[in-house]
Amino acid sequence: MAAAAAPPPPPSAAPDPTFSATLPENPVGNPIFVRIRLACNNDVPHIHKLIHQMAVFERLTHLFSATEASLSATLFNSLPFQSFTVLILEVSQVPFLQDQHQNNPLYPPVVRIINLDAPINDPEAETFRSGADVVVAGFVLFFPNYSTFLAKPGFYIEDIFVRECYRRKGMGRMLLSAVASQAVKMGYGRVEWCVLDWNMNAIKFYEEMGAEVLQEWRICRLAGEALQAYRD
Amino acid sequence: MAAAAAPPPPPSAAPDPTFSATLPENPVGNPIFVRIRLACNNDVPHIHKLIHQMAVFERLTHLFSATEASLSATLFNSLPFQSFTVLILEVSQVPFLQDQHQNNPLYPPVVRIINLDAPINDPEAETFRSGADVVVAGFVLFFPNYSTFLAKPGFYIEDIFVRECYRRKGMGRMLLSAVASQAVKMGYGRVEWCVLDWNMNAIKFYEEMGAEVLQEWRICRLAGEALQAYRD
C-alpha cells in the first residue's frame, strides 16, 4: 500500500517523548538538552573529526591514519552492540525533534537536561552541527569482549571523548553510564577500558564511577612491521 | 538428493593433507604431531577444564564461575573470527585423520611436527583425549577489537594457555602465531593481549615474538555490584 500524503495525526494517549524532558517552569541557570543516541554512517564525518581531536589531545597524531572512508568501511556492518558500536553525544538548546534518531527502535536515546552555571561558547558549533538546533559534543566507541572466568561477554570501551568546551559538566559520566547500563541490560559481566597511568583526573573520575584500576596488568601489542612478519 | 552409501573414492591428483606433515625418514629424537584447529561446541568440556587450570595457575580460582553450560551458551554463536573464537591445540603420535576438523573449510588447521628431546609423560591424557590418538594440549580464545586511530579491526587475545607438560616446546608460539597470521590474512591492524607485570618469562617471550609492552596504560574494570549499580 502506498503511503498517503499527510494523513491527519492519529489520536494518541501515549506520552510524547519529545516532552519527556522539558525545561522546568522556572529554569535555574542555563539549561541544555543532552542526548546520547546510536550513531550511523551519516555521523562518520563528525566521528572522524572527534577521533582526530582525541589524537591531538593525546599527542598521538603520528599514529592517526583513519579516514572517513576507512571508518565507513569498518563501522556499522552489524547490529548495534554485537560488534563495534558508536554512541553519539549531542546538545541542543531546545527539545530534540521526533526524528529517526529519537525513534530508533534499536536504542531509544538517553535524554537529560543539564543546568549549566554559564552558557557554553562553542567555537566549533558549525563544524559539529548535526541538526537545525543540534551539535555533536562527543562520542563513545565500544564492542563486546569476553571473560572466560565468568563465561560471559562484556563491553570494552575503546574511546570515550567529550569536546573541550563541554567537559566537566557530567557528559562523560553520561556516556560511560550509557555503556554500563546497556551491559547490565544485556546480562553482561563487566565493562573495561584503559587509562594512562599519569592521567590522575581520569583515574579519579573512573574510580568515582565504581571502576577498579588494575595495577599489575600490562597491554602487549603486535602491530605494523612486527605483525606483518606473521604473513603466511 | 539422498546421500549414496559408501561411494567409491574419486580419482584425485590433489595432495592428501594428512601426509603434508609426515615423519622424516630418519626421525631424530621424539617427533610429535601438533595441530591448531577451530574449536566447536563438542570441545566445551575440554575448554572448561583448561580455563579452570589457568585459574589455578593464576591463583584466581575465586574469580572462576564458568560452567560448561555457560560456555556453550555464549561461545560458537557466530562465524569464526567475527566474534569470540577458540582455537584448540592438539597433539598426536600419528598423523591427524582426515576428519571434520582436518577438513574444516572455515579454517584449515595448522599442522607441525615438533622434535622433542624426550617423550612427554602426560598424566591427564585420558581427561583431555579428543580422538583415538589425539589429546588436547591447550587453547587460545580471541575476538575482534577496533583501533579508531587506524580505523581498522584487530584481534584481542583473552586467553592463551598450554597445559604444563607441553610447555617450553614452541606450542605457545604456534598458538600466538596462528592468531597473528589470521589477523594479517584479514588485513587487521594489530593483535593485543595482557600480561602480568611480574611475569618476566612471559614478557620476554612476547617481546621475542615482536610485541611491544605498553608501560603507561592501565586497565579499568567495572564489574559485579559496581556494574549492577548502573541498572536502569
In words, what does this structure look like?
The structure is a homodimer of 232-residue chains. Chain A has 232 residues and is of the alpha+beta class. Chain A has one domain (30-228): Aminopeptidase, CATH 3.40.630.30. The first copy, chain A, contains five helices and nine strands. Chain A has helices at 44-57, 68-74, 171-185, 200-208, 224-228, and strands at residues 30-38, 85-92, 110-116, 129-131, 134-147, 152-162, 190-196, 212-214, 217-223. In chain A, strands 1, 2, 3, 4, 5, 6 and 7 form a seven-stranded mixed sheet that branches. Chain A starts with 29 loop residues before the first strand and ends with a helix. The relative contact order of chain A is 0.14. Residues 1-20 of chain A have low confidence and may be disordered. The interface between A and B is large, with 73 and 73 residues. Strand 7 of chain A pairs antiparallel with strand 9 of chain B. Chains A, B: Residues 86-232 form the N-acetyltransferase domain. Chains A, B: InterPro entries: Acyl_CoA_acyltransferase, Diverse_Substrate_AcTransf, GNAT_dom. Chains A, B: Keywords: Acyltransferase, Transferase.
Characteristic key phrases:
homodimer; 232 residues; disordered N terminus; alpha+beta; Aminopeptidase; 9 strands; globular; 30% strand; seven-stranded mixed beta sheet; 5 helices
**Could you give the count of β-strands of chain A?**
9
Distance between the termini of chain A: 55 Å
Low-confidence stretches of chain A: 1-20
CATH-defined fold name of chain A: Aminopeptidase
CATH hierarchy: architecture of chain A: 3-Layer(aba) Sandwich
Per CATH, the class of chain A reads Alpha Beta
Helicity level of chain A, as a percent range? 10-25%
Using a beta-carbon cutoff below 8 angstroms, give the protein chain pair with the largest interface and the number of residues from each chain.
A-B, 73 and 73 residues
Globular, elongated, flat, extended or rod-shaped: what is the shape of chain A? Answer: globular
Number of domains of chain A: 1
CA-atom Rg of chain A in angstroms = 20 Å
Structural class of chain A: alpha+beta
Summarize the helix and strand pattern of chain A as letters. Answer: EHHEEEEEHEHEEH
Largest sheet of chain A: 7 strands, mixed
**By CATH's scheme, which homologous superfamily of chain A applies?**
Gcn5-related N-acetyltransferase (GNAT)
